[in-house]
Amino acid sequence: MFSKLHRKSLSLSLSVLLTGASAGAWAAKATPAVDAGMAPTNQTAHVTLILKLHNQAALEDYIRQTVTPGSEHYQQFLTTSQFAQRFGATSDEIARVQAYLQKQGLTSEVLPSHLAIRTSGSLGQFSTLFQTSIHNYVSRENGHRYHKPASAPQLPSELAGIIDVATGLSDEKVYRPHHVSSPSFASNGAPKLQANAFSNKKSGGTSSNPTASGIPGEYTVGDVANFYDINPLYQRGVVGNGSTVGIVTLSDFYPSDATTYWSDIGLTTKSNRITQVHVDGGGAIDGGSGETSIDVEQSGGVAPFANIVVYDAPNTTAGYVDAFAQAVSDNTADSISTSWGLPEIFNFAALNVNGASNTDTTDAGDLRAFHAIFLEAAIQGQSLFAASGDSGAYDTVRDLGAGTGVGQYTAPLTVDSPASDPFITAAGGTTTPYSYAFGMGPTESVAQESVWGWDYLQNYLDTYIGKGVYNLFSTGGGGGVSVYWRTPFYQDFTPGIRRSESKQSLVYNDPVAGPTTLLKLPGHFAGRNVPDISLNADPETGYLFVSTVDGGLAAGEGGTSFVAPQLNGITALLIQSSGHRVGLWNPQVYALQNIFGYGKYTPFKAIRTGDNWFYNGSPHYNPGAGIGALDVANLDAFFRSGF
Predict the structure, then answer these.
(1) Across 342-352, average pLDDT
(2) Mean pLDDT confidence for 154-171
(3) Among 152, 255, 288, 432, who pairs with 541 as Cys (CB 3.0-4.6 Å)?
(4) Which residues pair with 616 in a beta bridge?
(5) What are the residue ranges of helices labelled H in 158-277?
(6) Are residue 146 and residue 182 in the same domain, yes or no?
(7) Domain with 121 in it
(8) What are the helix (H) ranges across 287-338?
(9) Residues 462, 372 within the same domain
C-alpha cells in the first residue's frame, strides 16, 4: 500500500486557506458589481428550458408510495418514457416550443424525459427571446467577470404556460467542490489514532478490512468499511455487481487516478468499469479535477464491482443542470452523487434580479430547475446524494469570507444547494476518534464520533498558541435549515428538527457605499433541515486520494465530498443485496430512525457530541449530523426484509 506515502504539503497560511479569502476561483459572487456594459451579442450561449411538470401532486404522491412498504406502488419505479408520458410536457407543447425557437434561429434538443429542451444561440438572440439586455459585470471584490441579464428575463407569452425555468442566461455562478485539506499546524502535529478507538464489530462484522490503513489522515475505503459495518456485505459477496453509480461533476479527470488508487491500496475491482459522458462539451481538466477523482475513487472503492458513469460538464449553472438532467434522463445509473454546490441563498431574487427587494427570497430559477430533475430521479428509483458543504452552519464563508472590515461580509446561518433540496439526500460530516497534539501543547483526544466542526481545534489553538494566531472559522460539516424549501413530510415527526434562526442577514461592507444589506433571511421559517446522514469527513481524520492535477498522492484530505460518493457506493451494495433499486433514501431512513431509534440492531448511530459552529450533537436528529452515522449491515438487513 502506497510505499512512498507522504503528507501533502500546505504552504498557505490558515487565515487565507480557511476564512474563504482565496475562494474567488470557485465562488458565485453576491458582491455588488460594476456594470461593464453590453455583452457581445455574437457570444455563444447554451440555455436549458425546463418544462413545466404535469400532475406534480400525483407525481410526489407516487414517489412516496415507491418507498413506503405496503403501498400500492412500492418499488414500482417508472422508466424514463413512462415519466415523460405521465408527467412530462406533451408532444404538442414540445412542438410549439421548438417551432418558436426555430423562428428565432435557435437550435434545440429535447431530452427523452420531456422535462428539458437544450438550446444554443447567441446572447443577442437570447436577449431578444427573453426581452432583456445581457450585460458584462465585474466584481468589486476580486475582479471576477461574468455576464447576466440586466433586468429580469420575461418568457414569451406564447410559451409562458409551458416553460418553467430558463437557465444559462448568466455565467456568474461557479460552483465549489466540497473537499478541504488538513492544515499543517506544526511539524509534530500529525494526528495519532487511539488504539481500538473506532471499529465496528456489530452484526458479525470485522474491523480487519485488508485495504484499511488505520491511520487518521491516511484512511482508505477499507477504513470506511470498518467504521460503518460494511464488511459483512463483502463477506457475502456483495460488491456492487449489477449496479451502476453515476457521478455528476463540473471538472474532467484522469480515470487512471482511480485505477491507481484502487490498485495501490490492494483493492480488487472490476476492469473497464468507467464510462465518461461529456455534457455540453464536458468540464475542463482544472483545479476541480481532484474532486472528480475523489468521487470516482470513493464510490467505486466502496462498491468495487459496480459500473461507474461520470457526467462532467462546464462549471456553470447551465452545465450543472444539464449534467444532472442527462444523468437522470439516461436512467442508466441506479444512484448518483455530486460533491459540488453553492449557498442556497445565492439563488434568491434579492441577489440575482436588479431592483429586487433585499427580503425577496423567491427563487431566481435554478432551485426549481434542479428540483424538477430530482423528482424525475426519485420516481425512476435513482438514489441521489449531495455533499452538504464544508463551512459548518455558515455556508457562505468558504465563498465570501466573513469579517467586519471593508470589502468583507457578514456570515448568516445558511445551507448549501443542491443538498438542501428535499428530494436529494444531504451528506454531512463527522470527526472519528483520534488524538492530536500541536507544537508544545498537550495531547488531547476526540473520544467518540462527533459532529465535524474545527472549533474543537480552534479552542485548542487559542489556549496553547494564542488567540488570533489561527482562524479556522467556520470549517466543518454543512448543516442547518433551508429558508426556501419547507419541512418535507419525512421530517414532520422527527425529534430535533429546527426552524431557521431570526436576525440573519447577508451584509456587504462596500468600500464605496458602506455597509449594504444584500439579503434579509426569514426567521422561524419551517424549512427542510440538512444534512440527512453523516460519515467521517474531517481532514484531520481524513483520507488518501490520488489526483494527477494535485501532484499524485495526497493525504489529510476530507470534506463532505467524500461522504456523498461513499453513500453512492453503499447504495450500489444495497441494490445488489436486495435485488432492486433503493430509490429516494430520505423517507425510508427517517421512518426507520423514527420507529426503531438508535441501538445495537438499528441502522443508525446518534452523533451526540461536537458541533458545526452552531448546531450541537444530540441523542436525536440535529442539523450538525442529521440522523447520524450508519451501520450498513443493519441497514441492509432492513432493506432486504422490506421492513
Answers:
(1) 94
(2) 92
(3) 432
(4) 611
(5) 221-227, 231-235, 255-264
(6) no
(7) 29-53+88-172
(8) 289-302, 317-330
(9) yes
Separation CA 353–CA 355 (nearest Å)? 6
Task: Report the percentage of the chain scoring pLDDT > 70.
Answer: 91
Q: 35 and 138: one domain?
A: yes
Predicted local confidence at residue 642, as pLDDT = 76
CA angle 611, 25, 327 (to 5 degrees): 80
Do residue 320 and residue 457 come from a single domain? yes
The three grid cell numbers given for residue 455, joined into one nine-digit string: 472549533
Strands (E) across 437-503 are located at 444-446, 450-451, 480-486
User: At 117, is the secondary structure helix, strand, or coil?
Assistant: strand
Picking from 172, 207, 241, the residue at the C-terminal end of a domain is 172
Note whether 452 and 610 are within 8 A (CB): yes
62 in a domain, yes or no?
no
| Unique residue bearing C-alpha cell 432551485 | 367
Helix (H) or strand (E) holding 636: helix 632-641
Which residue, 470, 474, 397, 481, is CA-closest to 176? 397
Q: Is residue 60 part of a domain?
A: no
Q: What is the DSSP letter of 33?
A: E
Grid coordinates of 621: 436528529
Dig out the grid coordinates for 576 from the structure: 445488489
Please tell me the distance from the alpha carbon of residue 364 to that of residue 349, in angstroms, as a whole number. 5
- Decide the pairing of beta strands 425-431 and 533-536: parallel
Mean pLDDT, residues 267-276 taken together: 98
Q: What is the pLDDT of residue 203?
A: 33
> Pick the residue with more confidence: 142 or 361?
361
**What cell was used for 249?**
461533476
Measured distance CA(392)–CA(611) in Å, rounded: 8
For the stretch 519-574, pLDDT in tens is 999 999 999 999 999 999 999 999 999 999 999 999 999 999 999 999 999 999 99
> What letters, b where the CB count within 10 A reaches 16 and e where it falls short, cover 516-535?
eebbbbeeebebbbbbbbbb
Q: Domain boundary at 119, 146, 172, which?
A: 172
Per the document, the length of the chain is 643
Q: Do β-strands 335-338 and 244-249 pair in parallel, antiparallel, or remain unpaired?
A: parallel
Same domain, 165 and 222: no
Beta bridge partners of 145: 138
Q: Which of 529, 530, 389 is nearest to 453 (CA)?
A: 389
